[in-house]
Amino acid sequence: MSRRHLAFDCAGSALAATLDDAAGSTGLLIVTGGNEVRAGAFSSQASMAARIAAAGHPVFRFSRRGVGDSEGVNMGFRNSVEDIAAALAEFRARCPSLQRIVAFGNCDAASALMLAGGLGCDGLVLSNPWTIEHDDGAPPPAAIRARYAEKLRDPRELVRLATGRISLRKLASGLGRALRPPPPPTTLSQEMRAGLARFAGPVRLLLAERDRTAQAFLAAWGSADPRLERCPGASHAFVEPAARGWLFERLCAALTQAG
């Protein structure tokens, strides 16, 4: 296994990338979400790439246009199809023995892959897809309900309620927000559903239990999809040791399935 830093062209801009080499014929393309560079939050994607490569699968990561040390203008996840397509082509060119590619995206990177119908990948691992079109900073009712359910399972919170250390006024207000009906599906979530319907390969939808973005996605998507898997106690970037192991296992399973 070795790590190479490189650059490739996307519509006239040089994009920075990193390739972790391995001998396997099924590779992992990591699409970075938000404005994060290819290393990921707390270098989580860099460390995951090394771990996946050590398991025998080459891994390609890149920063889209206008992010980090990549040239060009950052046009957001909705306009990142060219970036992802160029990264896929470069991955295949750098690893000619590749037969299959699985793409992994977290947050709006997952949304971008869904909107694009998978862009010819052989499998998709989509975690905490972004479905929020108008973010007013308030947690969605699903997130509030999850928080109150957690509190009701905690004996210390019940003691605080019984001894009057919790404001009943705030409690009533919170419960009122939690009982609001879920908002209608956003245009974004409908477009994502239509895009994913065009993809014929295997899909894994991974949700971090404590993540607001994941909770909003679940409210918009519904819980009946058999491809959904939830990681207990995980935050958005799966930085907890148990969550990192959980994510690694799901990525390896997807790579094996695609192979």
How is the topology of this model organized?
Elements: E1 3-10, E2 13-20, E3 26-31, H1 44-54, E4 59-62, H2 81-94, E5 100-106, H3 108-115, E6 123-127, H4 141-152, H5 155-162, H6 168-178, H7 187-197, E7 203-208, H8 212-221, E8 228-231, H9 241-258
Parallel strand pairs: 3-4, 3-5, 5-6, 6-7, 7-8
Antiparallel strand pairs: 1-2, 2-4
Helix pairs in contact: 3-7, 4-6, 4-8
What does this structure look like?
The protein is of the alpha/beta class and 259 residues long. The chain folds into two domains: 3-135 and 184-258, Rossmann fold (3-Layer(aba) Sandwich), CATH 3.40.50; 141-178, no CATH class. The protein has helices at residues 44-54, 81-94, 108-115, 141-152, 155-162, 168-178, 187-197, 212-221, 241-258; strands at 3-10, 13-20, 26-31, 59-62, 100-106, 123-127, 203-208, 228-231. An eight-stranded mixed β-sheet has the order 1-2-4-3-5-6-7-8, sandwiched between helices.
Outline of the structure:
It contains 9 helices and 8 strands. It is globular, with a radius of gyration of 20 Å. α4 crosses α6 (168-178) and α4 (141-152) packs across α8 (212-221).
